[in-house]
Amino acid sequence: MNPSARSWGVFSALALAAFALAASSQPQSPAPAPPSAAMIAEGRYLVEMGDCAGCHTRSQAPALSGGYPLNTPFGVIYSANITPDKDTGIGSWSEADFYRAMHSGRDDQKHNLYPAFPYTYFTRASRADVDAIRAYLMSRTPVRYTPPANRLPFPLTIRPLVGVWDWLYLKQGEFQPRSSQSAAWNRGAYIVNGLGHCAACHTPKTLLQGDKTNDALQGGTLDNWFAPDLNGDPRGGLATWTAADIAEFLKAGRNAHSSASGSMARVVAFSTSKMSDQDLAAVATYLKALPATRSARARPIDAAVINQGQAIYVDNCSGCHKMDGTGIPRFFPPLGGNTNVQAANPTTLTHIVLTGTIMPTTATRPTQLAMPAFAWKLNDNEIAAVASYIRNSWGNAAPAVSASQVGDLRGKVAAHPVRKPPSRV
Amino acid sequence: MVQSLPKVDAVVIGFGWTGAILAQELTDAGLNVLALERGIWRDTATDFSTTFAQDELRYRYRMELFQRPAHDTCTVRNDASQTALPMRRLGSFLPGSGVGGAGVHWNGQTWRDLPSDLTAKSHNIARYGKAALPPDMTIQDFGVTYAELEPCYDKFEYLCGISGQAGNINGAIQPGGDPFEGPRTRGYPNPPLDMPWAPTLFGQAATSLGYHPFPQPAANASRPYTNPLGVQMGPCTYCGFCEKFGCGNYSKASAQTTILPVLLAKPNFTLKTSCEVLRINLAADGKTATGVTYIDAAGSEFFQAADMVILCAYILHNVRLLLVSGIGKPYDPASGEGMIGKNYAYQIDSSVDVFYEDKILNPFVGAGALGLMISDFNGDNFDHSGLGFIGGGYIGVLQTGARPIETHPTPDGTPKWGGAWKKALAKSYLRCATVATQGAVMSYRGNYLDLDPTYRDAYGQPLLRMTFDFKDNEHKMSNYITARATEIAKAMGGREISVKPRTGSWSVVPYQSTHNTGGAIMGTNPNESALNKYQQSWDVANLFVMGATAFPQQSGYNPTGTLAALAYFSAQAITGQYLKATGKPLVQA
Predict the structure, then answer these.
(1) What predicted TM-score, i.e. pTM, was given to this entire model?
(2) Is-contact B237 B248, C-beta < 8 A?
(3) How many CB atoms lie within 10 A of CB A63?
(4) pLDDT for A115-132, tens place per residue?
(5) Would the N or C end of chain B have less CB density within 10 A of its end CB?
(6) Which residues of B form the catalytic set?
(7) Is the pLDDT of residue A425 over 90?
(8) A219: domain range?
(9) Among partner residues A319, A365, A419, which is closest to B46 by beta-carbon distance?
(10) Which domain holds residue B289?
(11) Number of domains forming the structure of chain B
(12) Which residues of B touch A373 (CB under 8 A)?
């Protein structure tokens, strides 16, 4: 069998599989010098920094082989296979092809990629880093797998339309350091706005799902979570966190103020916990230098709601979070002064009360400390009351949560089931 | 058809405390380890959530975390003249099932045996003469000394974040601790739990009588704790649901809260649940284990080849597996020969209730190991000359939670039902303190384990048969320490007391404690033990047997501290010595 087998019109799956095996064992045509081990190692580090596996690995499948469904407001987009399989992956992509994808959002045929792939941020990555990423991806075992077709309504199926979106939202160009800032700030800015693609979740979006760049990193909603404000807001932002607190959070998935939940738990487990202490310190330096945004929009809450919320809190929450809301730092997050608790948008707090949450496992903090689900135990009114109480106690101030807000979210999130007693053994 | 699976370096049978300890240590040494657990997976977040874990009906009375007798139980009798009958409902003891084993639903009372407990035979003969031991008493030395075990006790205590007050650091007696304990190299990792009123009243009374009260060493964390593996434990909330329950606050040490977050992440470790080992397979020579045969939840049978087999199930199941696998020689009480099943022992408890007129003690505040104790009458801490028995026990007030269905103290003379009972209970519930004793049980020729000739389990294998009763030595000892407990109870200043001595034969019905020991005991030579001091089988050199199975007799202390220390001692010998010459005995017979 040889590569021309394709033209013989053999279409059975068996033959295709055999062909793939044969093809992958063919000697490569005049190849450039193989990348150094150091370059591949650097590429691996950058792939973790970019959390590529987070989107490019579907459940129970080989890493980076794609097919993970991304639920966008427009429909479902399946991530690409980025293993070096020549037919179904990126095995035939040149360095220039790969750089074009990262930098301009176009594939090897110069077709538009959908911006679920965050090239609007990856465009800031340096050529050297992009080449290292490719070197690492190419060093891995090819996986033959074609992801399912995207489920998008017409006319979004017309890829060239993405060009219009790019014209609005893509500002191509590698990161340019600012000489007025420290090396740490510049490295932090490079990571946060580039491969780290923090803004993908933490910046609010326009109707077309482009970044509201004037509100950069001031918090965004996705997948029934609210990714908090990373600016210096004293309530919902990071004003009360030191740079060391931020670095610890990203390394361990928890710190004295909070713990990672929702998508951020996965980001910490698979990406930030694997970053170097130096890079985490740089990220923290950059975030701490962001301006303080306008704060606090709280209005007085009905005393009856506070009384009801307090009674629920004492019965259900105080065992771990303490009567005075001080919690057990790094174990059970303090609620007084907590940024998720006081976020203008209460989605994360309400989500956690409904479904519970579990901390990521990290090398430095392996324990997946969890909060139980209350969806089965407390009704919408009760959750609204206790959330409003928590948001307005121990110095906290934030708008009340309504029962209808809780009810809306309850309908959207899958509450953890309570395990039934086993029937045997 | 039995499907054969690729060989692993070590297969661990049963995944409770000792299984997790051995798997953690052996994977650290680079071995590829597979653990087979017959029960289900359980973790804190899913199964012991604080939103429903405090359910006495579900866990205590419907026994959710325990072994199911319909699947596997043992038959019991008091002596060999009787016909043993199956225990169809768990009573006297409550073996666990599932990941974490009984270590999920224990109280967390974590002791070190006294140095003399580990040399019970030679110590007592040296001090009281051979005649002090009745002719049918078959106690012996462990073959390992307290000094050898000290670093292993220490390792377990720091793994679990034990809350306590040291009594003896390198020979220097510490105020507030147990002055009788063996010397330890450092204090406990956490301070004692906060003491409620009832134990405090006991402490005052015991001190007034010249005794030495100290806080019970507790695997209930008194403060947030991060153990040497980096695993985090939350502080105990004194909710009172430890014994028979899983802990929802990450406060009670268990495999789940101390080891599994690290172990489960290792690429060289695999855990299979709902997989029950039916037998350990032997090579034709009968001296080498080739692996194990197990059955999964779907009823399929597998042969799992392994270079080493580590038997870590509950003691009763360990002994049964050895017997059904034809390992070693079954014990014969008539001749005294054979080692498998020999020296089964237990413990003997009693109590004295103190009823107050005016003191509201809030007994629902509790933790599994929350109390003050004295060791003045434990082991050989007191002179037994002329007493007619050896051994002893602890005396103390433990406030484990007074859960409402289980706890109904009433003074003597109260009717057992009706309005008068209700009235007395309503008055007594908040005003009663219980002084408890827990005493040693020595081993005897007639107390043993073997295979039942009649009854079989769900897979058609013979059940284990338990032949056990309390002997004169134990009754005399228990009466003696119950009398001391009564004196202290009287000094506690209540309105009246109610003494509940342990009399007559052992019964399988009322719950006492899950402190079963022996059946494959350790020792210095194969003529008097099944295992060497490293818990390696004398008969099959690549088989190690963990747990209280190895105790030659039972001291007055709870067994978990010692069995965990022995597990570390064994793991140390396997990784340090055995792996350099696999398949060889670590001690020459």
Answers:
(1) 0.92
(2) no
(3) 14
(4) 999 999 999 999 999 999
(5) N
(6) 515
(7) no
(8) 183-288
(9) A419
(10) 2-580
(11) 1
(12) 49, 51
